[in-house]
Amino acid sequence: MSTLRSLTALIVEPQSGMRANLHNMLNLCGITKIDHAVSSGTAIRPLKNKSYDLIICEYDLGEGQDGQQLLEDLRHNKLIPLWTIFIIVTAERAYEKVVSAAELAPNDYILKPFTADNLLDRIARAIEKRTAFLPAYHLMEHGNLLEAIDICRAGEAKYPRYAIDFLRLRAELHVILGEAAEAEKIYQELLQTKAVAWARLGLAKTLFMQGEYGDAEALLQTLVEESSKYMDAYDWLAKTHEAMDQLPKAKEVLNNAVAISPHAVRRLRKLGDIALETGDVDTAEKSFQKVVTKAKYSEFRDPEDHVRLVRTLVKKGDTQQASSVIRDMEKSLGNLEKTPACRALSSALVQKELGNDDKVAEELAAAVAACRDTAGISNDLRMELARNCLEHAFDNGAAEVMRDVMSNAADDAAMSKAMNVFEKAGKKELAETVVKESRRQVVDLVSSGAEKARQGDYQGAVQLMTAAVHKLPDNPQVVFNAAVAVLKYLENIGWEGKLGDQVKVYIESARRLDPNNPRLVPLTELYQNILKKYGVKPPGAN
């Protein structure tokens, strides 16, 4: 096929002989621009800097991640665009296990043994479908979700064989936009024609978004009973139980899910968190131990997982094992920015259990200092640090840490959770003071950025708001105004590719954090107008 000659491909296969066979097969298909990787780690490194049209990945990658886990990492961390075709190669004996527990499905599976003609047929089918969806994907990549919805409507008529897929994508776009009622109508329409599991799951999501937890719970419960290996349904059922303050039920659901699909790190982490909150230390320890073990093969390791395990071991009274986990963190993750804060808090927890108050105070002070200029530390870890500061009369440290937590609160629920840290420690007045300071911090940041833009200092506005997002990535007001600052710079100074990519991320974050914000539509329209002004085409567009 002549259309395949321009495609770029990545083969992820640990066996040299199979790599050569796949390479030759792709050559026979007309694909010559081919790179190789022998593991998930060696695949992720080039993908951070280069995109491919096609990835052919062996399921069994040996020690570390398998092909399905690699796909989940790539999509979760947005390292591959929507139009990248991902095909998993697997032995027949593993096929049922791979397909049944797949969290994020690849474009296709191909069973060994197969011929070049088999592979060509699968690639051709995937390319044909991608061509139909490419206009919508390009619009989505550039944040123009409303126009992408219109393209989906047109696609339903233009490509009847993909009508269901276009309906599904249109519903998912409404969900992203926070338009749960619109998405619900589409899922109800789909269910009238075919009771597919993903449509029922989509309907449950829209019910959840509208606060109809009881109806969502009933639908999800039925779904997991009838489709016992549909893993997303378990996650949403657990999430619904959690929203209804039914943590033991949420833990049970996640336990069942882990028994079916034991390798999903994010689910294991969630199970550990809920188990620890419900006092089930044994389950928490097992879960966090698996997270730490499995994550060491990922390029996206997080030292906060070690802190979770340390907390659990300390609660169990096993300070010796907790200290060993801290040493492992220092050795294997010492190069990461978050590690000093995580190490100091972990050490403080161990010293607290050992009764070394002076050492606890020293480590808490080190953790607070490390948090000061470190991005990416979760609000949960900061709140754990603040709780320990308050327990040891280090109120100033707690206030400093919680000021950023409250400034970074995405909604009222997050702010209430932060307030609860002070109230449980009997520090309600301190909480009220920190709330006022956090709100002032956000107002001052946003006002300063807006003032610089009004004065024509567009570069200064971008620098200030970029730093603000770095510090407060979950505050919708900060993220929204950072997007405005970058757009004003591009509109008045000129197009810069790096800033163009940056503002796209800001718009996506603002939509995720506050999907019902009415100012998102004009913001997106301004972005689209700037692209047209400078003749900038979406990635992958001809």
From TrEMBL:
GO terms for cellular component: cytosol; protein-DNA complex. The keyword Transcription applies. Pfam families: Response_reg, TPR_16, TPR_19. One of its GO terms (biological process) is regulation of DNA-templated transcription. CDD domains: REC_TPR. Keywords: DNA-binding, Phosphoprotein, Transcription, Transcription regulation, Two-component regulatory system. InterPro entries: CheY-like_superfamily, Sig_transdc_resp-reg_receiver, TPR-like_helical_dom_sf, TPR_rpt, WalR-like. Residues 8-127 form the Response regulatory domain. Coiled coil: none annotated. SUPFAM superfamilies: CheY-like (SSF52172), TPR-like (SSF48452). One of its GO terms (molecular function) is transcription cis-regulatory region binding. PANTHER family: REGULATOR OF RPOS, TWO-COMPONENT RESPONSE REGULATOR ORR33. This is FimV domain-containing protein. It comes from Noviherbaspirillum denitrificans.
